[in-house]
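User: Could you check the structure of this?
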Amino acid sequence: MKIAAFIDISHSAGGGLQQTLGVVKLLKKITAKNYTLQFVTSNIKISEYFNNRGVDNFLFNKNNFLTKLMLKISKINIFNKIFKKYNPFETFLKKNKFDLVFFIDQSSLALYCEKTSFIFNIWQLDHRKLNFFPEYDFRTYFQTENLYKFAANRSFKILIDCEKSKNEFAHFYNCSKKKINIQPLLPNLIFSKKELTPKLKDKRISNLNLKKTIFYPAQFWAHKNHSYLLDAILHMKNSGMGNYSFIFTGRDRGNLNFIREKIKKLDIEKNIHVIEYLNDEEIIYLYENCLSLVLPTFVGSTSLPLYEAFYFKSNVIYNNDILDNELKDKVLKLDIKDPKNLCEILKKFEENKDFNKEKLNLAKNYIDQILDEENLINNYKKIFDEFYYYYSRYN
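Assistant: Sure, the predicted structure tokens are below.
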């Protein structure tokens, strides 16, 4: 049996790329008698990106003009019957004798698996719950719904991050829970080689008192709620706690100008350092040396930064309303409706810098267990073995 481990992520996709890299590193270690895995990429740039990292891959170039055209035509209802047999993705799979596709990221190419079995990843469900944010506009909502409904009905397995998300997906898409497997998010950063003396390219990091610095690694989407932190910083400044610094790092996804303008309007420029890119060494250094990670996001029952912070033993201040129940006792709970709440939490550190030590140890033990490499690999192998069992009944 032959499995296509399919990569359709952009090389500039931030957390999505980190998740994909982490999974790829695990899949490379899987060996089995009954099946083989072959990595497949969907465009030239991502193919080169993974080749440069020692990941050999086949290329299905979805950006080729003719392929792109046929993919579109084959999904137009009036042409569907005529052009169905010219489905270029399934033709590629058949030509290369793939029996199963494991979509490592949330690829819309799953919609073209009309005869081929596939495994699909679900990374977020918030277009259903928070569709008033601009990033979840009607077009995005419609495309995501179409993809998720198809995956719920046609996939062999759905992979999702935690019990809360599993229950939500089963409810929203009338999907059997037997089909849904929990596989925790896998931060690639934990595999990075830790340098004894990290090279800090951005001099602002070296010049800060990190014991008075809060770290927020998040792309600038509206749902990431940087705005809460600005209100909280203003309250801190007015309360005599204006000696704290905040580092924001991540790509602009349409909300950065709004955040910059609000920073200026509130006159808190001295407290905030916007760094759009940090390398892995710098990020690990900040996890290990900043006072705390803060995540006021509206999205994320779990998240990569949360797991990274657990792994590197960083304090974590997290929006309590959205967390999976299994995680709530491992973080400092943040009330994002109250800007004063962050100030109250930071005062506890001033009173006793080690007041959160018990949760730090609890979080570290937890993350070491759920991200145990052998267990993670075995989770994937069980799914592949289960499919092989059924496959062997008719092949």
